[in-house]
Input
Amino acid sequence: MKFPLLPALLIALIAWPFSALAVDAASLPDIKKTKLGLYIEAKDVPDFLKSHPKVLFLDLRTPEELLFVGTPQGIDGNAPFGNMNYNKWDDKKKSFLRYPNPDFLSNFEYWSLDKGIEKNDFIVLICRSGDRSALGADFLAKQGYTNVWSVVDGFEGDMAKDGPNKGRRMVNGWKNDGLPWSYDLDKSKLILRE
Output
């Protein structure tokens, strides 16, 4: 007896968890697009982590951001993608300049080795709003990692374009989706400098 629908059913069952995470890449600004094209929204991260026992979840924000803005519960560690230079000001962005972190790869490897992550294992990156996680995903893709997911709305979310919250990060993201987070830093999730 033949089962012609069985292969199609198996493919559908395997693909189903990923189709539920579908983020339309065409709707993303270029800064949030990655070469691997693997995107996830913050609201979907907790279920993604539960359904994949071997996944590395890293926060790419600066330690100052974790301390003063908050930290998502469930991260494996912090690997800042950029460092703030508090001696230089960017008039256009109205902010201190941020430079790439020369230690990003070694910070990433610290956490990936600790968890036994290999080049094809799941990696989920989160930052403030999806820009640095996209840059981090592209950087790791160049290192040969093939399954790096960017949280497109990040920890704080996108800015409202109009209404009473115009200019505030109130649209989406980890905090705005009501996911668990804390101001309390977990020392075990940081790479301490001696």
Summary: The longest helix spans residues 6-19. The chain has one domain: 21-185. The helical segments are 6-19, 45-51, 63-69, 104-115, 131-142, 173-176. The mean pLDDT is 89.
